[in-house]
Amino acid sequence: MRYKCVFLFSFKAMRSLLKSGDTENIVFFAGVSRQKEIYIMAANYLQSLDWRKDPDIMKNIISFYTKGRALDLLAGFYDACAQVEIDEYQSYEKALGALSEAYKCLSKAKMRSPEDQERKLSDMQSKITLVTRFIQARRADSQEAVKQCELLLEEPDLDSAIRIGDVYGLLVEHYAQQNNFQQAYQYLEEMRSKMPTVNLTYYVPQSTMEVVHRALSIPFNRQSLSEHVRHNSVEDSEEVEELPEMDYGD
């Protein structure tokens, strides 16, 4: 009975702190309470903050979910970290580390539905496989890189793990460097048709596009670049600070 009263007091106290938005005391109270539910409440709150720019917030989220034994939620957080690494920094290596940690957490989680857990694990493994293949493609020699990129473009769920623009960008750069401007232009056109609202200079340098157009005597109009710029366009990326350095494991 005493424990129940203490828990109810702690729960109400945490709810009051959450309403106040007093982050410092929320973190402190969660740490001293040592209660699973309180840890999770604190971690959920911290996720609503700008954790991308604050390594302490990130570490506390990971720590509280771990202490609260909410491994499924921790897996979701690592998955979000992976997406940020890809969308804003094009760092597939760091994304792979985060996805690997997400898979480890998810495999150890005790979810209510084993079927749902297996489905999520399968989806996570598919992401890891696709990201690994793209990393290998970027490291391979030119011909093998092209082959792997073309195979990736045939994957039906490619965009669940890899931005299609990054794959096309690698192909365009390869063919431009090989002076195969016709093939480079073909992939540029495919990019435009598949991503009509995206600023292509986020994936292919404007200088490369100009070289391709000039080599084929095709007028290059800077205005042809989409005016609808995605949130992670070049303009936006200049204003985004790097994600704090995190150890995503081996």
Characterize this entry briefly.
The chain is an all-alpha fold and 250 residues long. It has twelve helices and no strands. The two termini are 45 Å apart.
Descriptive account of the structure:
The protein is mainly alpha-helical and 250 residues long. It has a domain at 163-238. It is built from 12 helices and no strands. α1 runs parallel beside α3 (36-47) and α4 runs antiparallel to α5. The chain is elongated. The two termini are 45 Å apart. Residues 72-192 form the IF140 C-terminal TPR domain. Keywords: Cell projection, Cilium, Repeat, WD repeat. Residues 235-250 have a biased composition (Acidic residues).
H/E element order: HHHHHHHHHHHH
Spatial gap, N to C terminus:
45 Å
- Count helical runs: 12
Please describe the biggest sheet, giving its number of strands, its sense, and whether it closes into a barrel: none
- Name the beta content range: under 5%
Structural class: mainly alpha
